[in-house]
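User: Sequence in, structure out. Go.
Assistant: Echoing your sequence, followed by the structure tokens.
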Amino acid sequence: MTNWESYIKEYKSYLKLERGLSENTIANYAFDVEKLVSHLENTQQEVSPLKIDEQALQGFIYAISGVVNARSQTRIISGLKSFFNFLIFEGYRETTPLELIEIPKVGRKLPDTLSTEEIDKLIGAIDLSKNEGERNRAMLETLYSCGLRVSELVTLKLSDLFFEEGFIKVTGKGNKQRFVPIGTATQKYIVLYKDSIRNHQTIKKGFEDTLFLNRRGSGLTRAMVFTIIKDLAVKINLQKTISPHTFRHSFATHLLENGADLRAIQMMLGHESITTTEVYMHLDRKHLSKVLNAYHPRNH
């Protein structure tokens, strides 16, 4: 194919070195461009990244619109925009062929939120007679009460627990660290798991400081946490699509509903930008008007 490979390779190293993105994110960006390349191959269009025009891209977007939803289309288009911007940045092209291409309108769809009753039910369905029961309860309590990402949960270390101060240290995206408050009930479940289960395990080299361990004494994978949650949802016959992220999402929603301010939620979630946190806002317009009526000086 007309030298797409070499440009993709260069693009990947640009994303890594210039933009400091993770391997995972880089792979996703490259995958968007590879989708375009395979479309060009399938339709026998011999065209290089420097010569491809708006018409060819419009054809590609038309082709994928039949197979993927608007959200995925938007993601692919924005991945391609990033690639063509890189080509301009490096002086390979002067313009982007995506200039006039419309991005499908997508409302930011929020994941399902769990009510506190549903969270209690899920945690209540854990079989505590099994060793991993204590661990799973401590994990789900931590996910929900600290609003962690699943990757933050599985990498949590014993040395990150500052229970006397009432905090845990969390390593988030891009290795950014933040301190998140942790309630006494959640601390109690972690201590219980640590003392009654973890202390009796043979721990694999390199995992001595990892808090949550699998049966073989090494760290859990993100997939494992997904499976645990999916199985509990089936057990209580929950008719919602849930994942570890649902707990994080519910954490933010419940805080907002109970009057926490957005800036505090942003800090706890470790969001770079307040706009990411603002996604939660439209959940709860009723709550916002109550806040305004209660606190605005003109309303008294």
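User: And one key feature?
Assistant: The chain has 13 helices and three strands.
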